[in-house]
Design goal:
The protein is of the alpha/beta class. It has a single domain, classed as Formyl transferase, N-terminal domain (Rossmann fold, 3-Layer(aba) Sandwich). The protein contains six helices and nine strands. The chain has a seven-stranded mixed sheet with strand order 3-2-1-4-5-6-7, sandwiched between helices. It has a two-stranded antiparallel sheet with strand order 8-9. Helix 1 links the parallel strand 1 and strand 2 (31-38). Helix 1 packs parallel to helix 6.
């Protein structure tokens, strides 16, 4: 099997990066993580990547006069490492249409909300304030608009009455660490493609659905009650 060469772009903690690196260590995984690139020298994820034997590069955005210069420097490193796919994992820089265009269909991002709800920052606090009962995470193709590209995978968690932004974030993060490697495997194996601005996924899905309600609540549907007296 030819494995795709993947770079992960980070700015901070790097827990999603660690999940991708761990997945990439399995010989059957269709992608290998060849590079971790950070725009922040102090990103904690850099040490984690090094400890895992992954090459790291820092390109400090603050030492460039403009976004284009910063992105050209990143592009040169990605080219040098013969990178085929890019995963953004907590990468906190807006990318220009030029860079996004270079990686169209080959660059994905993870966002801690069920897009298109709660784009941007502070997603967990905003989900709690909105009173949603289901929250989660999304992996999507990167397009010039932030948090807006075609969705590849989503994972949901229930929102509990006593949740704080922190407890909710922890449950969502556990889901992130599951869906990001899954989405990367789909892309790297060619089962997922960006076609005419939409995400095409080869294969069928399990049927079924989830209801998010407290334990013990009767949610039988009218069709379950067919024949029952009105
Ligand atoms: C994650 O919640 C991710 O969804 C968002 O930024 C956070 C990064 O966390 N884009 P980590 O650095 O992967 O731990």
């Amino acid at each position: 099997m030819i494995r795709k060469r993947v770079a992960i772009l980070i700015s901070g903690r790097g827990s999603n990066m660690a999940a991708l690196i761990a997945a990439g260590k399995a010989p059957a995984f269709p992608a290998e993580i060849v590079l971790v690139l950070s725009n922040r020298p102090e990103a904690a994820g850099l040490a984690v990547a090094r400890a895992e034997g992954v090459t790291t590069v820092v390109i400090d955005h603050s030492s460039f006069a403009d976004r284009e210069g910063f992105e050209r420097a990143m592009q040169a490193v990605l080219d040098g490492q013969k990178v085929e796919l890019v995963c953004l994992a907590g990468f906190m820089r807006r990318l220009t249409p030029w860079f996004v265009g270079r990686w169209q269909g080959r660059m994905i991002n993870i966002h801690p909300a069920l897009l298109p709800a709660f784009k941007g920052l502070d997603t967990h606090a905003r989900a709690l304030a909105a009173g949603v009962k289901v929250h989660g995470a999304s992996v999507h193709f990167v397009v010039p608009d932030v948090d807006s590209g075609p969705l590849i995978a989503q994972g949901a968690v229930e929102v509990r009455d006593d949740d704080t932004a922190e407890t909710l974030a922890a449950r969502v993060l556990a889901i992130e660490h599951r869906i990001y490697p899954t989405a990367l495997a789909l892309l790297a194996s060619g089962r997922v493609k960006l076609v005419d601005g939409r995400c095409r996924i080869e294969g069928s899905y399990p049927t079924g659905s989830s209801l998010i309600v407290p334990d013990g609540v009767d949610c039988s549907t009218p069709s379950d009650n067919r024949g029952a007296p009105p």
